[in-house]
Design brief:
- The complex is a heterodimer of chains A (about 525) and B (about 400).
- By secondary structure, chain A is an alpha/beta fold.
- Chain A has three domains: about 240 residues, 3-Layer(aba) Sandwich (Rossmann fold), CATH 3.40.50; about 180 residues, Rossmann fold, CATH 3.40.50; about 70 residues, no CATH class.
- Helices cover about 30% and strands about 30% of the residues of chain A.
- In chain A, the strands form six sheets. In chain A, strands 6-9-10-3-11-12 form a six-stranded mixed β-sheet, with helices on both faces.
- Chain A is globular and about 75 Å long.
- The two termini of chain A are about 35 Å apart.
- In chain B, helix 5 runs antiparallel to helix 13.
- Chain B is globular.
- Chain B folds into two domains: about 280 residues, no CATH class; about 70 residues, no CATH class.
- Chain B is an all-alpha fold and about 400 residues long.
- In chain B, the strands form two sheets. In chain B, strands 1-4 form a two-stranded antiparallel ribbon. A two-stranded antiparallel ribbon of chain B has the order 2-3.
- In chain B, a hairpin with a 2-residue loop joins strand 2 and strand 3.
- The chains are: A alpha/beta (about 525), B mainly alpha (about 400).
- Chains A and B meet through helix 10, helix 11, strand 20 and helix 13 of A and helix 11 and helix 12 of B.
């Protein structure tokens, strides 16, 4: 039994343009166990699972997958499903307006000749629902279910396909405590039935509770695989392996000139998302001083981007249940983004391609779009002035392009990020919110962005709120750090107090202090 | 010797690379040239006669102004299918105002334009505030105005318009100021002035671009481009001068294009329209009031639909029960042929006019050749698909 591996992944290396996401990763899973895969954001967990499930097809990576003793060359998700591997991602793949039973058998309908046998479908669906402990009528629409219940339908769906190895990517991230416990219990049941589960999770409490084995990934490499049966593994051991990295000297030095005046203060900020139908921010209190960089750490889904967007006047999307914003001590409220901009706020988005830049336009267009007022005399945009100013920003930010007439879609990630930053600097803000400012850009460009940030607080008296999933960046740049988890501030640390271990403990809501 | 051949090689490769990368921008000129040549041959030259070309311009007017408004609508990734019957309906209302209530032209035109703007606003509000997709909203309004058009023309049938100043809008000419070798002096003068203005502004623009360190096309290619445009304008001026002179339609369309071109290139509003089309979410986060821009674009579309209705009823000197049918397709096709992107965010008002000329040349040419109206529909539909497929293809290649 001990040596019986259902899955062995050997020497997996996967590269994206400019980044090596996985570097010679080895990953072995025993038959019938619950194997947890942990690591920081960007450690390569999801990439590894996408390779396993055929999302990244054979040939787009190097290395070898041995499943049930045979080498597998999956070309698509269909191939891996046929072999009995199923993946359940965070974005559920259900069709909301169809019934539960239709969803369960979608794509592999029970046929009688050339027509669908609905009666048999409903009967079978009912049996599978019992197996996943979902006690509802299979004819209900999926949209009428809670997220936790939808997750169970998703599991029912993969069980109906006879999956032998189920991959769950952050299954409990959007569930409440009861639903989470229910799901974990279901995983134990599946284990009894001989189904193997791989679970990716940030909730270490659940990991030590349920895992037989834990594998830690960090920076695209396997760090270790540990036996965790019967609660023998402690959360702090996992955290130590998840971080355990020296902060290299990639953060430029800065003289700290933090003023006494508070630039921005947010009190009792509670926000409801009408689409998700849940409270996404719960009584958040933060402040930032003039000349200060604060870091907001936390894992994916902790509510950091939601905090930035709700502060930045994006209220049509969210419902602000309570809370006050003070700018330099004065109470303000923002009806829209423009209001927030008028008070000196700027928000550089997390995903520059989705909502940061207008890719089909040039550098000039993108740089000035948020503050054309500054260039307009009467109704006419002064294009001379515009070119002069944008060229200054291009030089100051060291944007590498043939000219400011170059289309943004033809720039590298780092230069795109600089354009995105330049756009907001052009609005002359006082408080700059940077959401994942260095995501997907190379080390050199990172250093430049950090230098620009330092310059802004040092010389221009900016306040910067930096949201980041990269702990070294948080530690290297921040004067003070807030840690968020599940929509709440779970800790506040000064630069002196903060360590990766302490932040990770707060971000995973680990109760015991980690040494 | 060697040097010059190297330079020639450089020039050739520049032309080749321009042709490759900018084929989308030049395609409409090529299409127009091909159409002119083909119809010129098939009609035994009568397509290219001064009389017919003047005719063609007068016919293009009412589609051209619609297409200008449609360009903005398509840039912000919306669509307006109602414009044809809105134009037809407002043309009929204009006729009723003048014929039945004896309103002067000078009062009728502003009333109709305002009426059109209000119709556009109502559609914009339906899309922006109620969240009904533009496709559905404007399809519904197409039906509504089709009904209203037949309602207002029900008792009288086709309304004949006998108001000369009104009819002159699409049939008349700017008064002559003299003759030169039997040709109208004014059109020649306007042609020369237009060429001078274009050359001066293009040369200045190029100089500025060089100053700004922007990439520019090489001097010979630039010179050739200018020469080409100058030749085209002068030819047009001579053609007009040989017939009856400068049509009022050209004056009206030019004013509309000038205003819209200026707005799109030199004002905040224009930037925001491009911004919303390029990335709505990013524009919203940059503080652009997306809804307000949407309302504006539909108001402008309504107003131009009104202008189109005025030009069309003036052209026919009457308002009929089927006026405006199919205009939406002609104007949308004009935009796509003129280089408006099917995914929004890209498009130029000036190029749309060339697109409109392409579409109306087809109609005009086929009419001259005696192609039946049934075939014309089939051919136009096929060309519409081809134009869009070509657009999608050339953009996906990048």
């Amino acid at each position: 039994m001990n040596g019986d591996y259902i899955l062995e992944m050997h020497h997996i290396t996967k590269e994206f343009p400019g980044v090596r996401a996985l570097d010679n990763v080895n990953f072995k899973v025993k038959r019938g166990e619950i194997h947890c895969l942990v690591g920081e954001n960007g450690a390569g967990k999801s990439t590894l699972m996408k390779i396993l499930s055929g999302v990244y097809r054979y040939g787009s990576y190097s290395g070898e997958i041995i499943y049930n003793g045979e080498v597998q060359n999956f070309q698509s998700i269909g191939d891996s499903e046929a072999a009995g591997i199923a993946i359940i991602t965070q974005e559920l793949a259900l069709i909301p307006d169809l019934s539960i039973y239709e969803n369960i058998y979608f794509g592999h309908e029970i046929m009688e000749g050339r027509v669908i046998n609905w009666n048999q479908t409903i009967i079978n669906a009912g049996e599978i629902l019992k197996r996943v402990r979902l006690n509802v009528n299979p004819s209900l629409k999926v949209s009428d279910l809670r997220v936790g219940q939808q997750q169970l339908v998703e599991i029912a769906k993969v069980l109906s396909k006879n999956a032998k190895l189920i991959i769950l990517d952050e299954p409990t991230a959007s569930l409440n405590e009861d639903d989470s416990q229910n799901l974990l219990q279901l995983m134990r049941d599946l284990k009894k039935d001989g189904v193997t589960c791989i679970m990716i999770s940030h909730r270490l409490k659940e990991v030590v509770e349920i895992a037989d084995t834990v594998t830690v990934l960090r920076d695209g490499a396997t760090i270790c695989t540990m036996d965790a049966a019967n609660g023998s593994l402690l959360e702090r051991d996992i955290i130590r392996h998840m971080v355990g990295r020296e902060i290299e000297n990639i953060y430029p030095k800065r003289t700290h000139i933090i003023a006494d005046e508070t630039a921005l203060e947010v009190k009792n900020w509670t926000v409801f998302d009408p689409v998700l139908e849940r409270t996404i921010l719960d009584d958040v209190n933060i402040h930032v001083k003039k000349g200060e960089i604060i870091g907001i750490a936390g894992l994916m889904g902790a509510g950091r981007t939601e905090l930035a967007l709700s502060l930045f006047g994006n209220s049509p999307k969210y419902k602000i249940l309570s809370g006050e914003i003070y700018i330099e001590g004065k109470r303000k409220s923002f009806k829209n983004t423009k209001d927030a901009m008028k008070e000196g706020l700027a928000y550089v988005t997390e995903d520059r391609k989705r909502n940061g830049l207008i890719l089909i336009q040039d550098i000039k267009f993108n740089t000035t779009i948020a503050n054309l007022e500054a260039l307009t005399h009467g109704i006419v945009i002064n294009e001379n002035e515009e070119v002069i100013q944008v060229n200054q920003y291009k030089d100051a930010l060291n944007i590498k392009a043939t000219s400011i007439a170059q289309l943004v879609m033809n720039l590298s990630g780092g230069n795109q990020q600089k354009v995105s930053l330049g756009k907001w600097l052009f609005t002359n803000p006082k408080i700059l919110i940077l959401d994942e400012p260095t995501r997907g850009i190379d080390v050199g460009a990172k250093y430049e962005i950090y230098s620009i940030m330092n310059q802004l607080v040092e010389k221009e008296g900016y306040s910067i709120i930096m949201i980041s999933s990269e702990l070294p960046e948080i530690l290297g740049m921040s004067d003070r750090i807030y840690v968020m988890a599940e929509g709440m501030i779970t800790g506040e640390l000064t630069a002196g107090e903060a360590t990766e271990h302490r932040i990770m403990a707060m971000a995973t809501k680990t109760e015991e202090e980690v040494s | 010797m060697e040097k010059s051949s190297a330079r020639n090689g450089g020039l050739l490769s520049e032309v080749a690379s321009l042709a490759r990368s900018r084929i989308r921008d030049y395609a409409m000129f090529i299409a127009l040239a091909v159409i002119f040549i083909v119809f010129g041959i098939f009609t035994g030259g009568s397509f290219l006669s001064p009389r017919n070309l003047t005719n063609l311009i007068n016919q293009t007017g009412y589609i051209a102004v619609l297409a200008v408004g449609m360009t903005l609508v398509l840039i912000i990734s919306q669509i307006d299918l109602s414009v044809g019957y809105v134009a037809g309906f407002l043309g009929a209302v204009a006729a009723i105002c003048m014929v039945k209530y004896n309103l002067p032209v000078i009062a009728t035109i502003p009333i109709i334009l305002i009426f059109g703007t209000i119709i556009g606003l109502v559609q914009g509000l339906t899309i922006g505030q109620l969240g009904v997709p533009a496709f559905v909203t404007t399809l519904a309004f197409q039906f509504i105005f089709r009904g209203l058009l037949s309602l207002v023309t029900q008792e009288s049938g086709t309304i004949r318009i006998d108001v000369v100043p009104f009819n002159n809008l699409s049939n008349g000419y700017v008064p002559n100021i003299g003759n030169i070798a039997g040709m109208d002096l004014l059109s020649l003068l306007v042609g020369v002035v237009a060429v001078v203005l274009i050359v001066v502004s293009q040369v200045r623009k190029r100089k500025k671009m060089l100053e700004y360190r922007f990439e520019v096309i090489s001097r010979p290619v630039f010179a050739f481009k200018l020469l080409f445009f100058a030749a085209a304008i002068i030819t047009l001026a001579i053609v007009l001068a040989k017939y009856q002179g400068l049509p009022w339609t050209i004056v009206i369309v030019s004013i509309v294009v000038f205003i819209y071109n200026f707005m799109m290139n030199n004002t905040r509003l224009g930037r925001y329209i491009y911004g919303i089309g390029g990335n709505r979410e990013a524009a919203e986060l940059a503080g652009v009031n997306v809804k307000r821009i949407l309302f504006f674009v539909f108001c402008s579309m309504g107003m131009l639909a009104a202008l189109s209705g005025i030009l069309f009823s003036s052209r026919l000197q009457s308002a009929s029960t089927t006026a405006g049918a199919g205009f939406e397709l002609d104007s949308i096709a004009s935009c796509y042929i003129g280089g408006v992107s099917t995914s929004g965010g890209i498009g130029k008002v000036g190029n749309t006019i060339i697109g409109a000329l392409v579409i109306m040349s087809l109609t005009n040419g086929m009419n001259l050749m005696g192609v039946g109206i049934s075939y014309q529909y089939v051919i136009k539909g096929a060309i519409f698909i081809l134009a869009v497929a070509f657009d999608v293809y050339t953009r996906s290649r990048k």
